[in-house]
């Protein structure tokens, strides 16, 4: 697995700000068992913003202890997703598989302090206990058989011995969740959970606490599927005599039908959204609004998010994913990029990525019209980069007459279009010589179209559509004069010549 970096902060609250308040440290702790899901990305974003808002630190920790389900490619998918979204972390990625010795040390410390114990119960015994409990309509749980036996470590490598945490038998565990409010569990509901398995590996609820302590995490932001784990983890923090972080459990993201978002609903992973043509800033802007709000503002720059984000303003009810709204947000960013050079420069690498994927190289782009201008005239019609590419290909890539859209050809290229196209070719060749207007400009192209209308005594529709089909390959494009101007004189003449041949 990828090499982790070392942990710089070794105990909670060790880093202090100028006002000597504990520095806020948050983490994103994905398990590498699949791609980075949009729900995970939102968790990462909220965790990142919590840290950035407070000028704190954000840490990436890969929870790869489930060695059967964790894969190297998922680790890479998570790192790629974080990078694409530009959720930069100050420390990490740390890998739990590289910290086993540390977990072992802490487990031994708990045993020494009588807060954990070896348990030798066989699977058969545990099954019997469970069955009896079920028959008696009791909640199945460990019956504390080995809790006070003070068993020694079993040195037999095939032993089924585990280490269990001594959960308090009485009282309650409660915390004030920043999103969900006060949450309480009775200790009687909690098991003496296994913290070390018989295969010599630590369990999730234990490693999380050791890491959160060692990494000085002050705020745990995660999905609400972990609410049931939190009281168990709080009890371990207490046993270790370490302060508990603040918890914020985020409600899950639902699909458009109100059910848990899954593959059935279409794209779920961040990189799938990339391939569908969404911009990282648009996806983040969309995700931040799934649960968080600031008045009725919809569009936020990164700086605004960092300034305004607050976990306390996160809604506790589940939010549904709405592709139409995501499209709207994405289009907003495309329009902005069409209008503003700084915004354009920001999205340009992503545009180039999609053009390349569609077989259009950077040098093709450099030989065609200014990309920002093309974006500007097309952004009203497109929601995604993929749509943009398919609507703008003809500006950068030539095609043959046989590739013209047959439906458009049938409808708009009638025998009477030929004189129109011939005349257009003549005029466009000599455009720079037209009296009164000079050069390849919008005005001169407009005038050329009006002149054709007058000379052949026909309506503008009979001129625009045939030209559009021959010049763009289809029947959809921005205003014909804009289209002609941007395609450029050389290509326009070549395409008309090819067709008229
Ligand atoms: N690794 C856990 C998960 O991917 C997250 C644990 C946590 O954030 O505490 O669901």
Write the layout of secondary structure elements.
Layout: E1 25-28, H1 38-53, E2 57-62, H2 72-84, E3 91-95, H3 100-112, E4 116-119, H4 123-135, E5 162-165, E6 172-177, E7 181-186, E8 194-196, H5 204-214, E9 219-223, H6 230-239, E10 246-250, E11 253-254, H7 270-275, H8 280-288, H9 302-308, E12 319-320, H10 323-339, H11 341-357, H12 362-367, H13 371-378, H14 385-396, H15 406-412, H16 417-429, H17 442-456, H18 461-472, H19 480-487, H20 489-500
Parallel strand pairs: 1-2, 2-3, 9-10, 11-12
Antiparallel strand pairs: 4-5, 5-8, 6-7
Helix pairs in contact: 1-9, 5-6, 8-10, 10-11, 10-13, 11-14, 16-17, 16-18, 16-20, 17-19, 18-19
Bound molecules: glutamic acid.
* End-to-end C-alpha gap: 61 Å
CATH domain topology of the largest domain = Rossmann fold
What's the helical proportion of residues? Answer: 40-55%
- Kindly provide the radius of gyration, computed on alpha-carbon positions and rounded to a whole number of angstroms: 32 Å
Total count of helical runs of at least 4 residues: 20
Strand content: 5-15%
Uncertain residue ranges: 1-6, 8-18
Bound molecules: glutamic acid
Shape: elongated
Helix/strand structural class: mainly alpha
User: Main beta sheet, described?
Assistant: 3 strands, parallel
The assigned CATH architecture of the largest domain is 3-Layer(aba) Sandwich
Number of strands: 12
Domain module count: 3
What is the CATH domain class of the largest domain?
Alpha Beta
Q: What is the averaged pLDDT score?
A: 93
Relevant CATH superfamily of the largest domain: HUPs
Strand order of the largest sheet: 1-2-3
């Amino acid at each position: 697995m990828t090499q982790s970096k070392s942990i710089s902060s070794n105990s909670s609250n060790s880093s202090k700000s100028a006002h000597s308040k504990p520095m806020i440290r948050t983490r994103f702790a994905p398990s590498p068992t699949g791609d980075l899901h949009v729900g995970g990305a939102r968790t990462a974003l909220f965790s990142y913003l919590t840290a950035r808002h407070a000028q704190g630190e954000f840490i990436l920790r890969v929870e790869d202890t489930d060695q059967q389900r964790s894969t190297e490619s998922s680790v890479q998918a998570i790192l790629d997703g974080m990078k694409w979204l530009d959720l930069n972390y100050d420390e990490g990625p740390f890998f739990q598989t590289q910290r086993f010795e540390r977990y072992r040390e802490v487990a031994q410390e708990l045993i020494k302090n009588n807060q954990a114990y070896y348990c030798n119960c066989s699977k058969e015994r545990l099954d019997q206990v469970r069955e009896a409990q079920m028959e008696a309509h009791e909640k199945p749980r460990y019956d504390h058989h080995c809790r006070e036996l003070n068993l020694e470590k079993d040195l037999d490598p095939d032993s089924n011995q585990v280490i269990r945490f001594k959960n308090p038998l009485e009282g309650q565990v409660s915390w004030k969740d920043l999103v969900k409010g006060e949450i309480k569990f009775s200790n009687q509901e909690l098991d003496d959970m296994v913290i070390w398995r018989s295969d010599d590996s630590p369990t999730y609820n234990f490693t999380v606490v050791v890491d959160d302590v060692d990494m000085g995490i002050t705020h745990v932001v995660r999905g609400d599927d972990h609410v049931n784990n939190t009281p168990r983890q709080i009890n371990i923090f207490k046993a270790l005599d370490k302060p508990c972080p603040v918890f914020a459990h985020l409600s899950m993201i639902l699909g458009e039908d109100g059910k848990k978002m899954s593959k059935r609903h279409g794209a779920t992973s961040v990189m799938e959204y990339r391939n569908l043509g969404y911009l990282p800033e648009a996806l983040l802007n969309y995700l931040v609004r799934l649960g968080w709000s600031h008045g009725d503002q919809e569009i936020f720059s990164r700086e605004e998010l960092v300034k305004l984000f607050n976990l306390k303003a996160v809604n506790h009810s589940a939010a549904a994913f709405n592709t139409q709204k995501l499209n709207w947000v994405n289009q907003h960013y495309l329009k902005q990029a069409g209008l503003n050079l700084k915004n354009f420069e920001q999205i340009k690498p992503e545009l180039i990525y999609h053009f390349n994927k569609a077989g259009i190289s950077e040098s093709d782009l450099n030989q065609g019209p200014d990309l920002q201008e093309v974006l500007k005239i097309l952004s009203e019609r497109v929601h995604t980069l993929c749509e943009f590419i398919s609507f703008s290909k003809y500006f950068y890539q030539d095609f043959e007459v046989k590739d013209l859209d047959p439906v458009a050809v049938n409808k708009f290229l009638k025998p009477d279009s030929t004189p129109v196209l011939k005349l257009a070719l003549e005029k466009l060749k000599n455009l720079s010589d037209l009296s009164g207007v000079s050069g390849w400009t919008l005005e001169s192209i407009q005038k050329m179209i009006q002149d054709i209308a007058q000379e052949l005594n026909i309506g503008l529709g009979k001129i625009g559509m045939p030209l559009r089909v021959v010049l763009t390959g289809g029947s959809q494009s921005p205003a014909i004069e804009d289209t002609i101007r941007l395609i450029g004189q050389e290509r326009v003449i070549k395409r008309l010549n090819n067709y008229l041949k």
